[in-house]
Amino acid sequence: MTPLTAYLLISALLFSVGLAGALTRRSAILVLAGIELMLNAANLNFLAFWRFGPHPEALTGFIFVIFSIAVAAAEAAVGLALILAIYRHANTSDVSQIVEMKG
Amino acid sequence: MGFIVHDLWLIPVLPALAAGISALLRQGERRLSAGLAIGSMGISLALALCAFVQSLADPGRQVVNFHWMQFGSEWISLGWMLDPLTAVMLVMIAFVGLLIFIYSTCYMAHDANFTRFFCFLSLFAAAMFGVVIANSLLLLFMCWELVGLTSYLLIGFWYHRPAAAAAAKKAFITTRIGDLGLLLGMVWLYSKTGTLLFYDHGAGCLEHGALASLLGAASVAGVPVFNAIALLIFCGAVGKSGQLPLHVWLPDAMEGPTPVSALIHAATMVAAGVYLVARVYPLMSLTPDGIATALKVVAWTGAITAIFAASVAVAQNDIKRILAYSTISQLGYMMLGLGVGGVSVGIFHLITHAFFKALLFLGAGSVIHGCTEEQDIRYLGGLRRFMPITFATYAVGTLALCGFPLLFSGFWSKDAILHAAHGWSVSQVPFYLGVIGALLTAFYMTRQVCYVFFGERREPQTVESPRAPEEICIIADPHESPSTMTAPLAVLAVFAVVLGFINTPAWPWFTSFLLQPEATLASPSPNPMTWNPALDFGRFAEAGLLPLMLLSSLIVLAGLALGWWFYGRKPIIRADDPDALEQLAPPIFHALQKRLYVDELYESTLIPAARWAAHFSAWLDRWVWNGAVSAVRILVTGLGWMDASIDTNAVNAGFDEGCRGVSDGGRLLSHFQNGRVQNYLRVIAAALVLLAALLLWRSAA
Amino acid sequence: MTVLITILAAVTLSGAVAAMTLRNLVRCALALTIAFAGLATLYLSLDAQFAGLAQLLVYVGAIAILIVFAILLTPSAPESDLESPDSALDSKTHLSSSGLVGSLLALGVFAILAWAVGRSRTANSATATAAPAANMQQIGETLVHRYILPLEVIGLMLTAALIGAVIVAMKESQAPR
Predict the structure, then answer these.
(1) What is the DSSP string of C144-167?
(2) Measured between CA atoms, how close is C92 to chain A, in angstroms?
(3) ipTM of the complex
(4) pTM above 0.80?
């Protein structure tokens, strides 16, 4: 069990938890939270590889993670704004109740 | 005059153009149509005279051939020629034709269809010229058929009369039967010799090479090929020239206007058959030894026709029908002349006959015109006083036809025929038939003249005019015809006398002229003018010539005397007086009057056979051929119905099923789109799992 | 060293699990915050100080607060959302929205990932090396020299997201329907 493997397993576990939550919970906000967890798991993955991989001085993984955090922030803001808008329209934030796009 | 050979085509084309323009004119524009016809005929006469002069200067045969139609690698060629035979025919047709055209302007002046008449006349003239100048049997045949067509149109000119319409049909169909033989002969000749051009610088079908190959060709069913072809071509002549089995149309053709009878059924069209035999004479006379079978058939046919028609003419009462049977008889003489004596003998009689027969017909027309359309000689009479010019010219024509000795052309031409028949090695019977025929000719012509011009005036009360059938003509005193009609009579009378002298034994100019091309071929001489024979009365002393002339003179005088004895001694006073001959031998006279029952024979045998064949063909067409076509139709319809049902049931249904399946599948798949985002996410996750597993598995492997 | 990582990982994971399973939304949000904080410490253990502190600033300081705001602004009936009642239509499909399927799928994903990690040569041969220098100067230089384009785009995107979020979340004008 190298340190890299440990971190990778942690990130995998975190990813799975986040996925489970995103697939299971009915509240839209919690789906978003699961997605944030998945993103974070990915960030952890990147940093682990940066730290233990070749050429850490290139800072490639590091910069990626910085950008990822910025994007996640923007996405969370927009997503939550959307949830608010949907809540105003449908009076609920339950994803199983919002089925107007069915085919 | 050398230009005329290349421009010979103008002679038929100008009248054809006149006919074409006349066809577009309204019926009221009489002077224009008559002017066109007479003008074009005049120019054609001038050109024909140029051709004649050219032929005099150079009596060889000159041809102009051109390619007409190509099929495969072979060309069908047509062409025209100028040789002495063509030249004399051209001049004869143009001259007689022009005189008759001028005559017609007066004769048809009261007719409502004046323009149509001259249109047809011009067309006929064009076609007849075409027959005469043709150097190709095919071109001759085409113009031959055109001549037959115009004859039909002109016989049936007054088509509202049922008799005229029936006569026109009869003429066309009877000549058609002959033309069938001509067509078969033509096709056979083409298949054997490969060309239909008569003369083509050695390659023509009448030239030495083709004739030699025909002689050598194998026989068909025991008949030599050259005999069969010659006889088939002669069939056409039999039909067109009214020889015995196919003569029945000529008397009925008298339903047409008299100028038509004069031009077509006396001078020119019926002469076309004689001309055809003369033109293909090298083929007719082709024989390995002795006398050619075809010529024998021609001679016998001519002799029998001559005697038959002369007998029937004795008992006829219609002025034109007597002349019609006389024409048939004289055509028989021409064929006899061709068969026993050669081209010049027959053609000489053709030329002289054209003039005096046209004269006789025009004279009869003058009588009819002057006596308010009366044609039955029993109701005419004593016209000598009323129509002197007509009488004088008619008398000249009669004497020419009878062959009055020495002075009239008919004597010289008929004598030539009898002389040749007397010298025929095969049999003397045609000679005797010819002699009896001459006797009968003199007899019936005298009878006719006595009935018409002598005796008392006999007339019916009313007469129906064929030209205006709704009118009943009022009987007036017969009057002499206007000068437009009598002038041609006079001109023709002059020629009826003078023409005889171009071929007397003392100066046989005509014979030498016609035979010159062969003579030139046999022994080419540097000076073409040396062929002109010298006047030599010593030729009269040749063997048998003078006794024969004496015999024929006696026969003619005997006929005239008999005729006068029966009909001229006592003037005929009443119309219903029985005929003098009828009193003598009623059964024979009645049989002759019924034209020896030939028409009745055909009516009872051939016509029903043809009708039966028509019914059979109709049945064949309706049930057998139509049945086959119907079977195909039913098959195709059935296939179509089957196709349609397959399309509706199988294809459409299948397609509908497919569409239903697609829509059902779509409905099924739409359940996946239930609008629940988390479901979508689950599907994505599942797919992700699967794909990742797949990738890793493969890379691990 | 690994003990520390284990403890930190445990904290993070328990926070994550709690965030995904608790019923009370606010408590979920708070658990999420703990998870974020644990992740920040994990970043720090990886010698990625800037990343860890940025994580704290952004995730804990902004995103978690946003989530709390959103929860507060969208109150819903406190019903069990782990089992969602299937509609008549959905009972026919086997894609039921029960928690079982999602969990199974997550389990499958983890299985795959773990298997991949276990078999990875790179991972198994990585050795613990000295901490790389990742000071602010280097980060700044790298950002401005090499990643200048993504930097500008990120700025544009953040602007757009800001404006977009405001517009989306704005109250609609009271137009009569």
Answers:
(1) HHTSHHHHHHHHHHHHHHHHHHHH
(2) 16
(3) 0.92
(4) no
